[in-house]
Amino acid sequence: MPKLDFDVITLGHGSGGLLTNKLLDSGVFDLLSNPILDARHDGAFIELDGKTAFSTDSFLVSPIFFPGGNIGELAVNGTVNDLAMCGAIPKYLSLSFIIEEGLKVSEFWEVLVAVKFACEKAGVHVVTGDTKVVEKGKGDKIFINTSGIGKVHPKANIAASTIKKSDKIIISGQVATHGMAIMSVREGLEFDSEIESDTTNLNHTISGLLDQFGEDIHLLTDPTRGGVATVLKETAQSIKLGIDIFQKDLPINDQVSSACELLGLDPLYVANEGLFIAFVNEAVADKFLSELQKNENGTHAKIIGMVTEEHPGQVILESAIGGKRVVSMLPGEQLPRIC
């Protein structure tokens, strides 16, 4: 914990004056120190060459602390992974806080520490940012925005337009884990072991796969809000081809499956934070899967479906007993505030 003479965040900490400087000096600048951030300029001077990817996201998760992580690492991992889905190697992040008056400094510090460790694991630097404080009741403890930039991998050509008939669809791990980690806390569900969020950075995993398979990886996407179903439906509509997926091949933890059943939720629509879906050339799909399963982020990876010329724009799920149904896009908000 930083040594500060206050225990909670007040409106004064967002004034830009003495209290703001105390908070940032003893927290953000000290903990996340690097040569670019230490300049404390209004922006950051960075050097990148070649094709570059840029992404931004905001994180409003409630509760801000959950099994397996907190909003701090979620904010870093979320933007790092968005860049990785572009085939980019993330390098720099911006980090902006909107803090509700009354947040305990100890909680803010815990979030900052999670940001630091997540950045170190992903190999990225926070180089600029902002802090604002809103009146009590006008927020929910803390909201975070992160933006990121990175150089695109030289072998990457990630675009829905490169998807072809017979491409295989591979998911990197078990579905619905993050959403159910949040919901199990909210609903007070108890299981033999705690369901933990799958939030993690995927950039090193993706970079290694691009090294090996390059342009045979046609699309990468992470099934966050809206879950697997929504991502696949969006893709099918975009490419004007059909997608077939098979329920028996969908990896899901037994306790997560039970939690979904108890709450009446379809795991295909539950958000994930440590997964990606890859559309890959059929010719390399088995080798791709084998390599992914050797990685810590892909031990539960499976081929879950394929692209077809039949039923263009539609996703068809074949159930475990052989029936088929159309998978639609999430029509509304199934779960509140889980990312």
UniProtKB/TrEMBL annotation:
Domain PurM-like N-terminal positions: 41-152
Sequence ranges assigned to domain PurM-like C-terminal in this UniProt record: 167-316
InterPro entries in the cross-refs: HypE (IPR011854), PurM-like_C_dom (IPR010918), PurM-like_C_sf (IPR036676), PurM-like_N (IPR016188), PurM-like_N_sf (IPR036921)
Originating species: Croceivirga thetidis
Full protein name: Hydrogenase expression/formation protein HypE
Source taxon at top rank: Bacteria
Family membership noted in the UniProt record: Belongs to the HypE family.
